[in-house]
Specification:
Belongs to the small GTPase superfamily. Rab family. It comes from Pomacea canaliculata (Golden apple snail). The chain is of the alpha/beta class and 245 residues long. The protein is built from seven helices and nine strands.
């Protein structure tokens, strides 16, 4: 069981650390409608070689590959979770950063519930390009929850990291995105970040569903946002590649 909080409350437009009382009540009463059945979609975009595929591989398969193989078009993974005891499925779409594959990747932005703009903490240009990626990916997404994720934290000294963090948080603020620094090599903050994204999208989607439905919610106390990964032995893990690396 993990609590879900932003990396830094000052670097997030989302101040939730508790599920909405309506959401807690609906889950406790098993009144979650289609939310447990609907598959949510996250897309990861960003410059070439910033580490998008490594982030997905670290989270989904707990592996890290030092060799670079460009993503051709898009690739995706499916992860299952338990959120407040409700099964929840997330599709994670890993897109190509190379310009020549952009038109293929862009067609997969449609309907995304989570947009993750990745940049390399050791490559300032990739941070400068983040707003362009956010604009393109969010245009066709579905009122997405936005994240700006710095990658390769392990390559930076404390001093170098502190310098880039200030600029990254400023960019995140202008984008209306929550900021996270990660390392797929060491695994630092990878799970915390994805659990946070899942908790946020679950809460947001369920509130929308409940507001749209006529059944009144019984109010019960709020609790810390909690997300658990599904027991992989209970569910067959679905994995499908659109294009391979
Ligand atoms: N040191 C370090 N290297 C990393 C990390 N994440 C990725 N890399 C390296 O960065 C290179 C690119 O990683 P990828 O994950 O393939 O990059 P990508 O963003 O998916 O690249 P495209 O698919 O071409 O857009 C590889 O050599 C990785 O080993 C990290 O956290 N730390």
């Amino acid at each position: 069981m993990e609590n879900s909080k932003p990396y830094c409350p000052g670097a997030s437009p989302y101040n939730k650390i508790n599920f909405h009382p309506k959401v807690k009540a609906a889950c406790a009463e098993n009144r979650t409608g289609r939310v447990g059945l609907k598959i949510c979609k996250a897309v990861i975009v960003g410059d070439v070689s910033v580490g998008k595929t490594c982030l997905v591989n670290r989270f989904c398969n707990d592996v890290f590959n030092r060799d670079y193989k460009a993503t051709i078009g898009v690739d995706f993974e499916v992860e299952k979770f338990q959120v407040l005891s409700i099964p929840f499925t997330l599709q994670i779409w890993d897109t190509a950063g190379q310009e020549r594959f952009k038109c293929i990747a862009a067609s997969y932005y449609r309907g995304a519930n989570i947009v993750i703009v990745a940049f390399d903490l050791s490559d300032e240009q990739s941070l400068h390009n983040a707003p362009k990626w956010m604009m393109e990916a969010s245009e066709n997404a579905d009122s997405p929850i936005k994240f700006l994720v710095g990658m390769k934290r392990d390559l930076l000294s404390e001093a170098a990291y502190t310098e880039i963090e200030t600029r990254a948080m400023a960019v995140a603020s202008t984008l209306g995105a929550e900021y996270w620094p990660t390392s797929s090599k060491t695994g630092q903050y990878v799970q915390e970040f994805f659990f946070r994204a899942v908790a946020m999208v679950f809460d947001t989607n369920l509130i929308r569903e409940l507001d749209a439905s006529t059944v009144p919610a019984k109010q019960i106390g709020s609790g810390m946002i909690q997300v658990q990964r599904e027991n992989s032995q209970l569910y067959e893990k679905k994995k499908k590649s659109q294009c391979c690396k």
